Amino acid sequence: MTGGTSRSIRWAQAGLVTNALLVLVKLIAGLVGNANALVADAVESSADIFSSAIVWTGLSIAARPADDNHPYGHGKAEPIAAAVVSLMLLGAAVGIAFMAVREILRPHQAPETFTLFVAAGVIGVKEWLYRRVARVAAETGSTAVSADAWHHRSDAISSAAAFSGIAIALLGGPGWEAADDWAALLAAGLITVNGIRTLRPALSGLMDEAPDHTVWEEALHAASRVGGVMTVEKLNVRSSGSGYYIDLHVQAEPTLSLEAAHEIGAGVKYAIREAIPRAVNVLVHMEPYRPIDLPDDLTLVTPPPL
User: How far is CA 283 from the centre of its chain?
Assistant: First the structure.
């Protein structure tokens, strides 16, 4: 298990414990203080508990090495976990919207003043947690950790909406009791946007979409600098968890011996892995250099200037 994976799992565990405590605080405060937006916020946070557990499990599975049944490793467990978390975000948004509409349609008491301070505290905790987890996601390139970070941000957003609604209901007095319910409805819309935002990269990972073009360029530069490489014919990169699988066709002098061509291929492999530490595997196919009479369907990748 890499250091980045260990950090990701630790923050997933921290998020799980934090969410469990916040659910209790918000649920009790919302029920006692007649703050329906806070109760809706607690429902959304309960989904965070399961999402953190799913991310933790997904990262643990993705970190397992390749075996006979999974020769390409278990990296797909990570985008699967991210997709599940994103779908849970969307589900939480639907649940919050349903509760908000139901409460808007029936009169109820205004929230108690202390619920305003509870919402403010939750906003601070969840925004801090979002920033820390998002930083880990950026450093590790993990879609699952990124989805978990946005789950924390969505909780901060829903708490901010609850805070605003409670404040309006308290300041407005009679006739404004439903303000926190309208705030919960607004939060549901924002959470939906975040759910879609985190679902897209998860689906990209499951569909083997090429990662950021900079990874492709780094691999090309590294391969082109190896002695004996005359050109790179094809170069493909796909993500697997937080790592990359890279395969490329390298052309060299046709008169080289098989052993010499193999040495060049090995040099390309190690050069790419040195340039891209997250490269899980690099597959190099050696071919003779063909400067003329190229087939119409053959696309050469021109090496960059040294």
Answer: 27
